[in-house]
């Protein structure tokens, strides 16, 4: 199911659960761009903004495109965890990453097999509030329909 894996990854790219992330420096260090940080400094980055940067993702960065994660044979193509930071990187990488993907795939298959989902008002824009966690601004009204034959 490489396409499902790609679709979930593309969703996490555009709509990260953690929109703003911060780290505390345990020792003096120099960031890749040459900026010096000192022990105790807090360094924050914005995954929400990073995943929309043309410099990182190309001109189609705003487009939901699961195919960007597939190679020419249709197999899932991993990106550096320092580019796609949904599960952190290096020594901080999430030990539950594979379990999380497995859970998302199981729930996706079960829900999409049984139901069809539609926005109640497809013309109403969905806006987000990138706080610590990415939140929908207001509410999201969705209608569900049973799929026939299930």
From TrEMBL:
<keyword id="KW-0503">Monooxygenase</keyword>
<dbReference type="InterPro" id="IPR001128">
    <property type="entry name" value="Cyt_P450"/>
</dbReference>
<dbReference type="GO" id="GO:0004497">
    <property type="term" value="F:monooxygenase activity"/>
</dbReference>
<dbReference type="InterPro" id="IPR036396">
    <property type="entry name" value="Cyt_P450_sf"/>
</dbReference>
<feature type="binding site" description="axial binding residue">
    <location>
        <position position="94"/>
    </location>
    <ligand>
        <name>heme</name>
    </ligand>
</feature>
<keyword id="KW-0349">Heme</keyword>
<dbReference type="InterPro" id="IPR002403">
    <property type="entry name" value="Cyt_P450_E_grp-IV"/>
</dbReference>
<comment type="similarity">
    <text>Belongs to the cytochrome P450 family.</text>
</comment>
<keyword id="KW-0408">Iron</keyword>
<keyword id="KW-0479">Metal-binding</keyword>
<keyword id="KW-0560">Oxidoreductase</keyword>
<dbReference type="GO" id="GO:0005506">
    <property type="term" value="F:iron ion binding"/>
</dbReference>
<dbReference type="Pfam" id="PF00067">
    <property type="entry name" value="p450"/>
</dbReference>
<dbReference type="GO" id="GO:0020037">
    <property type="term" value="F:heme binding"/>
</dbReference>
<dbReference type="GO" id="GO:0016705">
    <property type="term" value="F:oxidoreductase activity, acting on paired donors, with incorporation or reduction of molecular oxygen"/>
</dbReference>
<protein>
    <recommendedName>
        <fullName>Cytochrome P450</fullName>
    </recommendedName>
</protein>
